[in-house]
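WARN retry 2 of 3 for item q-0093 after timeout on previous attempt; input resubmitted unchanged.
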Amino acid sequence: MAVSRIWFAATKLRPPPLPHSAVPRPQLLDRLQTLALASRLTLLSAPAGYGKTTVLSAFAHALGAWRVAWLTLDAEDSDPARFVAAVAAALQQLNPACGAITQALLESEVADLRPRRLAAALINDILETLPEPLALILDDLHVLTGPGILAALDYLIDHMPPQLHLVAATRTDPPLALARWRGRGQLGELRATELRFTTAETACYLNDLLGLHLAPADLQALWARTEGWPAGLCLLGQALGAREPRAEHAVFLRRLAGASHRLFDFLAEEIFAQQNEAVQRFLLETAVLAELTPARCAALTGRDDAAAVLADLHRRNLLLATNEASEPVYRYHPLLAEFLQRHLTITRGPESLAALHRRAALGEPLPARAMRHYLAAGMWAEAAATIETEGPQLLQQGQLSLLHDWLTALPEASRAERPRLAYLSGACALHRQEVAVASCHLRQAAAGFAAAGAAEHEGEALALLAQAEIFQTGFSQRLALLGRALACPSGPAPRAQRLLERASVLLWRGDYSAAQRDLADAWRLWHQAPSRELLHALLAHHQPGFLALPGELDRLETLCQEGEARFGETSEGSELLRQALDRQWGKVHQFRARLRPALLATESALAAGERLGGLAPWPFWLLTISLLALQLALGLRPPLAHYVDQLVYGLRFHSLAMEGLVYALTRLCLLAGEADQARRLLALVPESEANDWPVGHLYRAIVKGLFALIEGNLTAAVATLRQVVAWEAQQPVHNPLGCPRMLLAEALVAQGQPEAALVQVRHALIDCSQQGAPGRLLLECQHAVPGLRLAVDAGVEPALATALLHELATPPGSPAPLPPPWPIPGTGQVLTSREVQVLRLIAMGASNRVVADELIITERTVKNHVTNILAKLGVSSRTQAAIRAREWRLV
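OK item q-0093 returned
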């Protein structure tokens, strides 16, 4: 949901006007500006009543060259998505263009709305649209609670752009990384001792602004009794000002000195007692309102003169003004509101407070504020109905923490017979990775919708339940649930998503015909009624494995072309759509053997994901595997060890999908000659589990053949790869990971069997050409070069083979970047391709460090290669190995 569609009161986004009785505090403001300029975060941390909001408002109005964005926080902003949307709305007061990236992310799938990702999107928005020095002021930071919002805040502060300075007021220190920022000199702090009034400021307020003409001794006594607490001095001034003649001041001051209970309560009781009965009733009846307007107060109290009463209370400093829109808006100081509600409960009973909340709820236009009244009044039916109405929008906007808080505040009985609430509870639980809880709620929701005859909603619950069940019961149960979901009516985009999800499960299970039928149904939806929503659903859920199916590459390319023509230039949500298009264009170009356009599209998709705050693990790894394969094919040297570390660290559980990623990255490591990294990855997939995945045995055999090839065990490589080729020939689908025939051809060339190698190359070229996917050959990277050169020399599909060599940046006649394995004369031993590279560099005098830097491998890997080389050559030193290399003209 777009940021602009999450509605915020205008009073949240602008600093409140300064009270007419505000004490000038130039030294404090100078100190605050100095701290803010030098710090990432400046905290005004003090208990209630220390004038933090007034100081921040004065600070906002006093800043000259700085631009200021203001946000008053409330409890609902503890939801990370709502908080980020609120900050974006505040920043849009400075530049309406700010928030486009955040808006695109908030329109994306709920599962991607991680707190740090939200914060990262906001940071990127600021970088792109607000280059000038900027202060973001957050008032009432203490209301934000929960791990999600704290993670978002931590990330925002740690990574905030240099032009941004965060200034926040809070009653208590937030549980953020304050010690770390303090140690780095990145935290500015103003506390109660600095925020309290000085004796001079006390005199200014009581005598100069209120005209009380108190004696210096009385001023000193009052300052000592209040310890400069601004809220106490404010109420004290009201109490003294209402006493005439001034002889009563001395009596009041003596009573104040002897008061044993809370100072604020003492003063509030004094001021409350001074009001006439009508004003007392007005104060009590309006104390439950977050914002007071003449219309709201008139509706709640029944008084026609509410506007005049509010103006008089504000004139007497009993109300704080916020901002005026169509009518004046006021609020109570939080301490005064608490006192009034407590007084009402004590004098009239708890039911009186609940009754006021009931009356206030009926006229409250904002659902979040109405919910506070419903819950305080025990209006469970109204609260449940509001959640049913607003919950789907909150879910779409990613405000899951707020939605969860609302749901858990309801009694179980209020949730039991409402399937929509069960569905929303399940969605929240799934997002929190509480899979068992999510499944329970979603099953209850599906049954409830079915009983009510709400088939479309039943389909929604079943589709979401299918996502949860894969973590518990596996593919069979998920297939059954998706089948039931597809039997329910739905719009084109949800139906397409369910079809593609089921096709993915069927593909993993090896049921290729059924997967093709589901894909065909999804494409028919596009042809019948193309829409932007449907396009995004098809692009977002189209898996790389689908390209193994005949004709699927053509259909995907057509979709990308038509999608570009219809929606590629639209502005609304274009960032997400552009990212989805680039991701699929990358696969199309790669399989069509257009490596450089594929690289650009894949890099663009990854960059868009980063701008949107980072990709979820699965799409991140799909794009990363594609990027690494393209870089290797183009002769580049990606840091594979880094990605191996990342994948090993990130694997928290084993699943068939993650097994595919492990094999894909293992294969890339082997293609690059990084056998040690490949072994690390294979340790994550025990042999006994390979049979759980229908094509696991095939991918394991490919890896086994590659290991044998790069280690120079040509006999084993040929035997294993012949078996892989035979298995592939029996399958009705293509291998989306590459073309093992080209690996077999390389092994046969190294064995001195060019004729047999040429047979394999001919089959590979013809098959991939007929499939329209010659890029499959290039997925073998530089290992495809020997076979392609053989084809050019023999005149077998010479035009295609030459074009593919040009794509690999190794046209006919140029040296191969990765040498073939080298049979050592008279020994029966073979140096692997990587060992040949290492030996050449050793013969040129390179140290282990130089070899590691040149080949982008670790020194430990170099040492292992050197040890193996010396053993295979039967020599004991690098010098002797270098002599052999020169004798054999390897250098």
